[in-house]
Amino acid sequence: MIPVAFDYQRPQTLDEAVALLATRGEDATVLAGGHSLLPVMKLRMAAPELVIDIGRLAELRHLRVEGDEIAIGAATRYRDLVTSTVLAAECALLPAVAATVGDPQVRHRGTLGGAIAHGDPAGDMPAAILALDGTVVLQGPNGRRSVPVAEFYTGLFSTVREPDELVVEIRVPRTGATGWAYEKFTRRSNDWAIVAVAVATMPSGAVNVAMVNMAGTPIRATATEAALAEGKSIVDAAALAAEGTNPPADTHGTPEYRRHLAQVLTRRALQTAIA
Amino acid sequence: MKVEINVNGTATTADVEPRTLLVHYLRDNLGLKATNIGCDTTSCGACTVLLDGESVKSCTVLAAQADGLSVTTMEGLSDDGTLSHPVTAAFRQEHGLQCGFCTPGMVMAAVSLIEENPDLTEADVRSGLEGNLCRCTGYHNIVRAVLVAAGKDPDA
Ligand SMILES: Cc1cc2nc3c(=O)[nH]c(=O)nc-3n(C[C@H](O)[C@H](O)[C@H](O)COP(=O)(O)OP(=O)(O)OC[C@H]3O[C@@H](n4cnc5c(N)ncnc54)[C@H](O)[C@@H]3O)c2cc1C
Ligand code: FES
Ligand code: FES
């Protein structure tokens, strides 16, 4: 399968990329790792006139501690997350989640920014960043703005990002090496999650629970979180994980099956993270 | 557009359409046919090559994305076309193939895996090859071959 013909540009700096996107935003598409975009272009479900390749911008591949937070450049690849000694000590949930994405070949190419911008409801990273109360930093012609990931997704594959904005950075708090878990339920090892649950213990002591594929966007298990805050047991709190959710139906499972999975995976994740 | 890619240690260049996939550049522009196209949907791993030393599925990489970088295909593992590379030698010794269609991708995925983790266990090999499908072998001898290539005892 061959994509529809397009023009290709690989700006050498972030400023160049932002300027190019500002003039061509409507008919241009950003290419990072290409592991969501190229399959879609090969199926001709997307046919951009211009592809702007930001995958090799060194300015977008940083990963460093900044005060209470960790700043991760959008073009940081899954493999960088998995092998990061900074993350192993400062936010060990992220490398563990990244290690479950696809297969080694996918992890060599796919980027954190691409996963966040793409907003697949079955994607692992959006829910992980949501569990961490992370922030998405966007840059457009008028400068930068930060959006809490909880406000970033508006629906299936839709975000508040404007066509002339780039995702440039993801910021997460320093949650440390412990107090987290990721339970991902798949049919085969390199599949997307049917349902997955991320648990993170925040610096405040709050326990956050986020779920993959329980809605059109990643969502928090708010009833479970409230029950934990009230001191309820893990088993009782996990039983509330699917409360108020309306998960999708597909060949992998009915909504009822997903609600059941959400409860079981939440219980397992909490038992690993905080028991 | 003009791309310049170092393939198997040799500088190559061609004028290609931006939509040219790396696997087509390798097979059609350069005539390097070891790299197979199986699924064409990033699922089977038959098209796996090394891009700057890391395994990638070349059906899902543009030649343009490899411009200025280096690529290794199975042809590049030995200078003389023999099975002298430890991974190819181990695939032969352990009968890690039947029809051979998945083999170049398996071999390149294994080279990358061993490079990243020289201390592989059987479980590491099985999960590390999760992106490569084989319809023939049932994987058992492939896993043995990768362990042998990594200097491990497959019967341990
Ligand atoms: C075989 C296979 C298995 C996979 N399995 C999983 C899995 O288990 N879990 C999972 O979560 N994902 C999985 N993925 C998807 C993978 O994680 C993608 O790499 C990721 O979702 C997108 O990242 P990318 O860098 O490849 O983005 P691209 O494909 O380059 O881009 C994706 C979209 O985001 C936009 N975009 C990218 N970067 C930016 C940016 N910085 N600013 C603005 N817009 C941007 C692009 O325009 C495009 O619309 C799988 C993919 C494959 C091929
Ligand atoms: S042909 Fe590339 S993964 Fe199957
Ligand atoms: S040997 Fe036939 S597909 Fe693997």
TrEMBL record, chain A:
Entry keywords, A to Z: FAD, Flavoprotein, Oxidoreductase
Superkingdom, taxonomy of origin: Bacteria
InterPro entries noted in UniProt: CO_DH_flav_C (IPR005107), CO_DH_flav_C_dom_sf (IPR036683), Diverse_Substr_Oxidored (IPR051312), FAD-bd_PCMH (IPR016166), FAD-bd_PCMH-like_sf (IPR036318), FAD-bd_PCMH_sub1 (IPR016167), FAD-bd_PCMH_sub2 (IPR016169), Mopterin_DH_FAD-bd (IPR002346)
GO terms, molecular function: FAD binding; oxidoreductase activity
FAD-binding PCMH-type domain: residues covered: 1-177
Database matches in PANTHER family: XANTHINE DEHYDROGENASE SUBUNIT C-RELATED
Name of the protein: Carbon-monoxide dehydrogenase medium subunit
TrEMBL record, chain B:
Keyword Metal-binding among record annotations: yes
CDD domains reported in the protein's UniProt record: fer2
Keyword Iron-sulfur: yes
Pfam families per the UniProt record, alphabetical: Fer2, Fer2_2
Pathway per the UniProt entry: Alkaloid degradation; nicotine degradation
PROSITE patterns assigned: 2FE2S_FER_2 (PS51085)
Keywords noted in UniProt: 2Fe-2S, Iron, Iron-sulfur, Metal-binding, Oxidoreductase
GO terms of molecular function: 2 iron, 2 sulfur cluster binding; metal ion binding; oxidoreductase activity
Residue stretches making up the 2Fe-2S ferredoxin-type domain: 1-77
Originating organism: Labedaea rhizosphaerae
Descriptive protein name: Carbon-monoxide dehydrogenase small subunit
Classification via PANTHER family: OXIDOREDUCTASE WITH IRON-SULFUR SUBUNIT (PTHR44379)
